[in-house]
Design a protein that fits this description.
- The protein is built from nine helices and 13 strands.
- By secondary structure, it is an alpha/beta fold.
- The strands form four sheets. The protein has a seven-stranded parallel sheet, sandwiched between helices. It has a two-stranded parallel sheet with strand order 7-10.
- Helix 7 packs across helix 9.
- The longest helix has 19 residues.
- The termini are far apart.
Length: about 300
């Protein structure tokens, strides 16, 4: 059995489907206050437990836990407090790891962010970045041992059908569909955009090839390996939609500490058989065709 936090989210629900398809038993951690529509099609194919009841995991499921995948995330976009952000992004994964240590589980996968602590957001996203980095350091410095492997997966710019309507690419495309003028920075920062299907395939391959990774704390980019200027990605969306939107580059200032250049290493993903299905053009096409748009 694989414990999966954040199963009702965009990434988590897609990971759950992949695990179930690959004959894995899934125990999903849910928050009863969250919308569960993303898992309506798999609710009868997995087990679910509320986040405030996870103490029961050790007693009921300890002997059958194969691994843990932590995808649950609070960004701080909805005015969550620092305590609420840390409770999900830091306290929950540590508690899951501690509960599972009484079993003979093989791996713990943490989905991390490529943002660093130096970037300055306008909201509680600062606490989001800090909590993710503190968790990464805690996993590496305190929980690394010979009994199980810890994977810190650095997820780059994820997109795809079914993503939340407040995500950058979804909001961008909605504005382009409405032919609205869009104020932007110069958008010369590099990003690596990865379609959700490609990300899921990479994570599934890692789970299926745990023993092929050396060491007990492994950091791995979940990315395409193809960095592109944000401006070029936006222009590609604009061109594909034949939008009449005026793209007002340079009207906004970069955030303090903005990441302008990125580096990704996907050699190990290639070594275990991962291959890219979607380039940016075909990924945008898939998103626009498959997403349920509410413009």
């Amino acid at each position: 059995m694989i414990i999966l936090s954040g199963i009702t989210g965009f990434l988590g629900s897609n990971i759950a489907r992949s695990l179930i398809k690959n004959k894995k038993k899934v125990l999903g951690i849910i928050n009863s206050d969250k919308n569960q529509s993303r898992i309506n099609d798999i609710k009868n194919k997995c087990s679910l437990i509320n986040a405030n009841e996870i103490d029961e995991i050790s007693a009921e499921y300890a002997s059958s836990i194969e691994g843990i995948v932590h995808t649950a995330t609070v960004y701080g976009k909805n005015n969550e407090t620092k305590s609420e952000i840390y409770n999900c992004n830091y306290d929950l994964p540590i508690k899951l790891l501690q509960l599972a240590e009484s079993s003979n589980f093989n791996f713990f996968i943490n989905i991390d962010t490529f943002y660093n602590k130096n970037i300055s957001f306008e909201t509680n996203l600062n606490h989001y970045v800090a909590s993710k980095k503190e968790l990464r350091n805690k996993l590496k410095n305190t929980y690394t041992n010979d009994r199980y492997k810890i994977f810190n997966l650095i997820l780059h710019h994820l997109y795809g059908p079914g993503d939340s309507n407040d995500k950058f690419i979804i909001e961008l495309i909605k504005s382009l569909m409405r032919n609205e003028a869009i104020e932007l920075t110069s958008c010369n920062q590099q990003r690596d955009f990865i379609h959700v299907e490609d990300a899921i395939n990479a994570i599934q391959l890692i789970i299926s090839n745990i023993i092929k990774f050396r060491g007990n704390f492994i950091e791995q980019d979940i990315a395409t390996g193809n960095k592109v200027k944000l401006k070029d990605f936006i222009n590609l969306c604009h061109s594909y939609l034949n939008s009449k939107s005026e793209l007002l580059y340079g009207q906004l200032q970069y955030r303090k500490g903005e990441i302008m250049e990125i580096r990704t290493d996907i050699k190990k993903l290639k070594d275990i058989g991962w291959d890219l299905k979607y380039d940016n053009k075909s990924g945008i096409q898939n998103l626009i065709t498959k997403h349920q748009w509410m413009t």
